[in-house]
C-alpha cells in the first residue's frame, strides 16, 4: 500500500476486515502491531464509522478513505480506551501502527494505491 502523492510506503502487509466480526474485533487483544502492517476495513456503504479502542493495548493511526480512494480524514496516535468519531464520510478505513501517518506523509486529499496501481481492496 502506497501514498500515490508522495510515493511513500504505507504497509507491505494488509489484513482485510470485511465481515461484521472482523470489523468488531479489529485489533482487540493483540499484543503488538508491527510497522509495515495495516488493517483495512471495507464497509458496505459510505458512512461515518466510529472506532473504539477498547481492549487494544497500543496507540494507532487512522486513515479514512472515500470510494475514489482519496484520503478524507486522518487521525494520528489514537490511544487505548478511547473512541474516535470521524467527521468525514468514508467507504474504507485503514488502521496503522502509530507514526505511519507521519512517516508516509499522509494528508487529506492524497490518493492511496496498492501494487503500483489504483487501490483495490478486493484484491
Radius of gyration from CA coordinates: 13 Å
The appropriate CATH architecture is: Sandwich
Based on helices, strands and strand pairing, what is the structural class?
Answer: mainly beta
How many runs of DSSP E, i.e. beta strands?
10
**Overall number of domains:** 1
Total helical segments: 2
- Shape label: globular
Order of helices and strands: EEHEEEEEEHEE
- β-sheet strand percentage: 35-45%
CA(first)-CA(last) distance: 12 Å
Look at the structure and give the CATH class. Mainly Beta
Q: What share of the residues lie within helices?
A: under 10%
Instruction: Give the uncertain stretches in residue-range form.
Output: 116-120
Average pLDDT metric: 90
The biggest beta sheet is recorded as: 5 strands, mixed
Lateral strand order in the biggest sheet: 2-3-8-5-6
The CATH topology: Jelly Rolls
Please tell me about this protein's structure.
The chain has a single domain (2-118), classed as Jelly Rolls (Sandwich), CATH 2.60.120.1140. Helix content is 9%, strand content 40%. The chain has 2 helices and 10 strands. It has helices at 20-25, 100-104, and strands at 2-3, 13-17, 37-47, 51-52, 60-65, 71-78, 83-84, 90-97, 112-114, 117-118. The strands form 3 sheets. A 5-stranded mixed β-sheet has the order 2-3-8-5-6. Strands 1-9-10 form a 3-stranded antiparallel β-sheet, with no helix packed on it. A two-stranded antiparallel sheet has the order 4-7.
